Amino acid sequence: PLPEVTYYYQGHESEKVRNLLALSTEAELRQLYGMENGEPIKSTFLGVDSAGEAPPFNLQWVPIFIFSDAALFGMVFIAALIFMEKDEGTLRAYMVSPGRLWEYILSKGLALTVLALFLTFLLVPLTLGLEPNYIHLFLIIVTGSLFAVFLGAWLAAYFDNFSQFFFPTIVLLIFLSAPSVAYFIPSFSPAWLRWLPSYPLIFGLREALFPSGNPQIILSALIILLALDVVLLFLASRVLQRQIVRS
Hints:
By secondary structure, the protein is mainly alpha-helical.
């Protein structure tokens, strides 16, 4: 297989240093793999934007705010809705209707995603103006918000009330927020951190808000999040249905 290289920058390196590093690395890889000069080497650059300068420190927090407030808040909201409607008997009544439970969860997810999009497109233009790629941002928010909603619905099926659900979920949210460390310190990127689903979400948000000319970051994030959305929607509907029938 052809080699793939990921460069992690702190953001203060000059363009000359970055180019020398990339050229020397590719030269070593071509010699090691016996590659011709024209053969491409897939390279991913993290921690630096297309202008070669890191954004101001205050603006670097925008992706984190969107990640926590817009992308992940649906995990708690969907659980609150499910517990409320379970107590009111709405879910039991829905079970005897022609509607399917995955449609119920999807409808809640879409409603919360619209709210996440509203918060995002209210904050981003006021802070970053026209710099972000709003199409990529829209896609990342939709898939990321649905991921959080479906994950919250799946977890809520294992608890009897919101109080039981809340504290384990806070621990999970802290764990999912761990890639924020790699966001501010790109050189810190252990394998276990990259396997977290929030890792591509955070760096996808960064790429959408501060485009660096690496659309593969967006593409890989969308593929991972979309696959997780489908799996979690299936799991949430199956587990929730079983819990309702048992109760």
